[in-house]
Amino acid sequence: IDGDTISCRNIPENIRLAGIDAPDKNCRGRRSGNCTLRGERGDWNVSREALQTMLRRGKVQVHFYNGTTYGRRIALVCGRGINLNARMVNMRYAIAKPTWTGRGIRDKCK
Fold first, then answer.
1. ∠ Cα 33 66 102 (to 5°)
2. How far apart are CA 51 and CA 30, in angstroms?
3. Which of 18, 44, 59, 86 meets the CB 3.0–4.6 Å disulfide criterion with 105?
4. What is the DSSP letter of 102?
5. Containing H/E element for 38?
6. What tens digit of pLDDT does each residue of 43-63 get?
7. Would you state the torsion angle of the CA atoms of residues 78, 24, 1, 86, taken in this order, to the nearest 10 degrees?
């Protein structure tokens, strides 16, 4: 969907990657820093494509946390043993938001 939200065929609701914030497609008048960014991380499409590429490399594991945000379940997403939440931050396609279930970027994948 974008750089911090995914959908899976076998999970009915969308999944929000915990602890990160990627550029939004449509800010609908909001003035957050995420809406005014430009460049590699500031382009929502580049961020989305980076996450899609990581997800296409094989099966992923989704580890849900308690709570939801805008109807999305919050989760740690792992691909090939790699924490994709943290990888999005490390590759500068998203920023860390520890106050938004920051465990998502600290937890280990098994």
1. 40
2. 24
3. 86
4. T
5. none
6. 788 899 999 999 999 999 999
7. -10
